[in-house]
Amino acid sequence: MKAASNILTDSITPSDPLVFGFWKVPQESCQEVCYNAIKAGYRRLDCACDYGNEKQVGQGIQQALQDGICTREDLFVTSKLWNTYHHPDHVPLACQRSLEDLQLEYLDEYLIHFPISTEFVDFDKKYPPEWTNLDGKMVLVPNDMCATWKAMEALVETGKCKTIGVCNFSTQLLRQIIATANIRPSTLQVELHPHNAQTKLVRFAHEQGMNVTAFSTFGSASYVELDMATADDSLMTHSVIASIAKAHSKTPAQVLIRWALQRNTFPLTKTSNTARMAENRNVLDFVLTGDEMNAIDNLNKNHRYNDPGVFCEAGMGTFCPIYE
Ligand SMILES: NC(=O)C1=CN([C@@H]2O[C@H](COP(=O)(O)OP(=O)(O)OC[C@H]3O[C@@H](n4cnc5c(N)ncnc54)[C@H](OP(=O)(O)O)[C@@H]3O)[C@@H](O)[C@H]2O)C=CC1
Ligand SMILES: O=C1CO[C@H](CO)[C@@H](O)[C@@H]1O
Predict the structure, then answer these.
(1) If you take atom 8 of ligand 2, which residue's CA is the nearest one?
(2) What whole-number distance in Å separates Cα of residue 149 and Cα of residue 155?
């Protein structure tokens, strides 16, 4: 079995492991947020057609390239295949749409966004896609995920994507893909924070040689604004995190990012605030001790805020206010 690489010590490209995400970044400010994130030093950009702002991310990237802040090759741009496009015929169309919106020739990474296949909705009728069809209903369709994966592999073969991977997959689903893959998933992106540590899943992915990207690194923070969590759940004010932060003269946000790094995962964070972009990047000059890592590990309660079951049952159209 291939040993997991260590992102803190191994040479990775880009060498910076911090990922900037665009979910819930409003279209109006997204170009500027993207530009500021690149200017702040982020080279890994996490996008998705479902976020409804890939055109604006593309404009931000172009602005940064034109200003000479970085080159295209310095960037690692991720996009994601939405649930409505899992049929093998639709995979290249969805990828092409993201490429055009982002003004890119290729993606560094293309991920299956959820292992949930829903009824196809024509690009011309509703774009960006949502969880629901044109009638506002969530219609699940039978799908062979291995066939979807074959279509993902073709994107690598035609040069549209450098690497392919998955989000929100369980160990079992990963095993199914890996069993038939010609090109194995390079990345698993899942919800990871001290309240949802998913240690076995992370270990399995690492054992399989996959990179693991941690989304919602700050736990409930992103879900409070959607009324899906209360301030009581906050890791940002938790006494354990606060006291470790104080000991290192760091902020709780920096401790949470550092915990993710020391678990050998790529921390994915979002902020629209330029000062916080700098704060969230200032995490490479301190190390959490073994005892501190253990104390944070002990906060796990297997609480997943981004639980598809919740919104599938509720028939929710989308979590994302920018579509409303
Ligand atoms: N593959 C998938 O299914 C999913 C992927 N993702 C990806 O992960 C990214 C990040 O996840 P997300 O859930 O947004 O969560 P984060 O854990 O990054 O939390 C974002 C929230 O934290 C706030 N915040 C950011 N920095 C700080 C700071 N230093 N101090 C205090 N508050 C701060 C932000 O507010 P403000 O902007 O006001 O600073 C925002 O409310 C997404 O943008 C997306 O790219 C997310 C969910 C699912
Ligand atoms: O990535 C995302 C964040 O979570 C949301 C709810 O699951 C998704 O809709 C969105 O695409």
Answers:
(1) 319
(2) 10
Supply 20's token pair: 């900037």
In residues, how long is the chain? 324
- Residue range 207-241, pLDDT digits in tens: 999 999 999 999 999 988 888 888 888 999 999 99
DSSP H helices, the chain, are 27-40, 54-66, 91-102, 145-157, 171-180, 199-207, 221-224, 239-247, 252-262, 274-281, 290-297, 308-314
What pLDDT, in 10s, does the model give residues 186-215? 999 999 999 999 999 999 999 999 999 999
d(CA 316, CA 130): 10
CA distance 107 to 154: 13
- Atom 21 of ligand 1, residue of closest alpha carbon: 222
- CB distance 208 to 184 below 8 Å: yes
Q: Measured from the CA of 320, which atom of ligand 2 is nearest?
A: 9
Ligand 2: residues with CB < 6 A are 23, 48, 50, 306, 318-320
Residue nearest to atom 5 of ligand 2 (CA): 319
